[in-house]
Amino acid sequence: MLRRAPIVMLAVSLATLPATSQAYDFKPKTPDSAFAGKLRPDIVGISAESTAETARAAFESSFKGRSDTKTDIQQQKFGGTTISYTAGLVYTAPAGAKGGEVLAANFSSPASANRAFFVARTLTFASDQQPTKAEMVKQVMDKYGAPTIVGDQHLYYVYRGGSIVSVGGKYKEPAALEAVDKPLDPKMALKLNATNTGRGSCVAVIKRALAKDKTLSALLDDAKGANCDGVLSVQLTPGTSSDRVGNAQFALLDVKRVISAAAIDGEALAAEQNESSAMPKGSAPKL
User: Are 121 and 108 spatial neighbours (Cβ–Cβ below 8 Å)?
Assistant: First the structure.
């Protein structure tokens, strides 16, 4: 019989919250995205179109039947209002006989429609359950298509102007499999960055994003300086033998959304603060 994974919610005592204004009314605006139409990559069904609500349903479906799941639902208040929203989700299943998994996503505020801007999934395979590298490369390319650049144990998909950027690699499965454990081709890396002189490498941007706090403010500077609209990286770490995968990490960053959502949220927060400061501050006279 399947057991529902226990959910542990992060809670903040109401007594510790700062004084809030009355419920603030705003009309949500959907932020821009690097992905549209059929070009909308997802990680276990979670894409840039996902809200915190729809992503949570996908998370629970992915972890259905695992009784050891730990769940972190990160709630925040919008500015000084009483409006609460889900800013992040992290579901963790510890490594065991079947391996481990961590699934995470981060979302903008309700002002910018509470949409996903970062999604990541990490799979750790048990030593006797490790897939072949050839099988993993095939599955990745079947799902996402031909990558932009391959190397350093990664397949990188760089999105710009509504399409996946090509730097002449023309990767098919055998070529991608051969290149994945080699260093990134410096000529291809130079060509990838040369189209936007002075802009930051999106390969570096996604690496730094994985190491930072997943908030709009923490990612904004890199996003503004990036030479792409979005990036998907897939890292395949060797396992017990070089032809096996011990760990697979998928990360999707909507660079364009980070910039757009940060602007929308900033405007809404400024309006809320102006409204709060305009509230009467008089007090009763001494009688």
Answer: no
Give the CA distances from residue 195 to residues 192, 201, 225, in Å, rounded to whole numbers and listed in that order: 6, 11, 14
Choice between 255 and 269, residue whose per-residue pLDDT is larger: 255
Task: Give 247: exposed, middle or buried? Use CB within 10 Å, 0-12, 13-18, 19+.
Answer: middle
| Bridge partners for 238 per DSSP | 245
- Per residue in 51-93, pLDDT tens? 999 999 999 999 988 888 999 999 999 988 888 999 999 999 9
Element (H, E) at 9: strand 8-9
C-alpha 252: how far from chain center: 5
The answer for 54, left when phi > 0, alpha when psi is -120 to 50, beta otherwise, is alpha
pLDDT band at 219; cut points 50, 70, 90: very high
Q: How far apart are the first and last CA of the chain?
A: 70
The whole model's pTM is what? 0.85
Per-residue confidence (pLDDT) for residue 196, from 0 to 100: 56
DSSP 160: E
Structural tokens at position 170 = 């023309």
The rounded distance, in Å, linking the Cα atoms of 209 and 66 is 29
**Alpha carbon 193 to its chain's center:** 23
How far is 95 from 175, CA to CA, in rounded Å? 32
Distance of alpha carbon 256 from alpha carbon 160, whole angstroms: 10
Closest CA to 141 of 121, 163, 170: 170
| Helices and strands: H and E segment counts in the chain | 7, 10
What 3-state class would DSSP assign to 144? helix
Beta pairing, strands 245-253 & 230-238? antiparallel
The β-bridge partners of 76 are 85
Question: CA distances (Å), 157 to each of 73, 94, 100, 135, 168, in order?
Answer: 29, 29, 25, 19, 13
Query: In angstroms, rounded to a whole number, what is the distance separating the alpha carbons of residues 144 and 164?
Result: 10
